[in-house]
Amino acid sequence: MPATPAWPPRSLPRLFVDEALLAGASVQLGGAPANYLGNVLRLEPGAEVKLFDDKSGEWLADVVEAGRKRVTLVVRENLRPREEVPDLWLLFAPIKRGRIDWLVEKATELGVARLQPVLTQRTVVDRLNLERLRAHAVEAAEQCERTALPVLVPERKLKAVLAEWPDNRALLFADEAGGPPMVEVVRPGPTAILIGPEGGFTDDERALIREHPQAKPVSLGPRILRADTAALAAISLWMSMAGDWPKVST
Ligand code: SAM
Description:
Blueprint: E1 14-16, E2 26-29, H1 31-40, E3 48-52, E4 58-66, E5 71-80, E6 88-92, H2 99-110, E7 114-119, H3 130-144, E8 151-152, E9 156-157, H4 158-163, E10 170-174, E11 191-195, H5 203-210, E12 215-218, H6 227-241
Parallel strand pairs: 1-3, 6-7, 6-11, 7-8, 7-9, 10-11, 10-12
Antiparallel strand pairs: 2-5, 3-4, 4-5
Helix pairs in contact: 2-3, 2-6
This protein binds S-adenosylmethionine.
């Protein structure tokens, strides 16, 4: 029989705040965060909350005033410095709403440093709501205990991205048409994974990517994966081989 979940939950509420934190600072929350702490969780003065600012790490803060529309906290002590995120970028062709939200959420949980939407010839979504995507990244970072948010940059055309590619970064191009297994290609160091749209890359794009000096085609197995599945499979593989998954002590 499943155990009855403990209530209230033992972990403290954890929120991102878009201002630099330091000991003794007063933080005023309104809108959704205040509603969450004051109305949903019904926190009262004296309750503890964890805050992080994507700059100085994670802090313990005390609620000093709690209402449904406004919550005031005072920052008490630093719990952890801002983490060093593994140097992995995800380049992905935008896919439709729902799936792209899910992709951003999961890529954040899995630990990517940067999310770069890339417009390809078969990309069907041409306008992205970056604010909404950022909100999903923030929520995922709050939940999975990241102290650094992934950098989310505006969409760019594939050609432009390739033309300005940094010399020191490997570009692993997930090619559904075949390539060596990704496990044979991954090397430590700055890397990006490129995932195509649901319609796949065109032959022209495939040729353009393949002739780029840093690009290496990789296969993710014999089945054609949906773009979001392919992205998460590739990130997981890289994290387990060259990222921070092996660094967790037992
Ligand atoms: N419409 C394409 C087709 O039928 O060949 C499939 C595109 S797939 C849905 C979307 C993207 O996921 C691809 O462009 C590729 O980047 C990646 N992908 C999917 N399965 C893959 C695999 N087995 N190996 C490498 N990449 C894969």
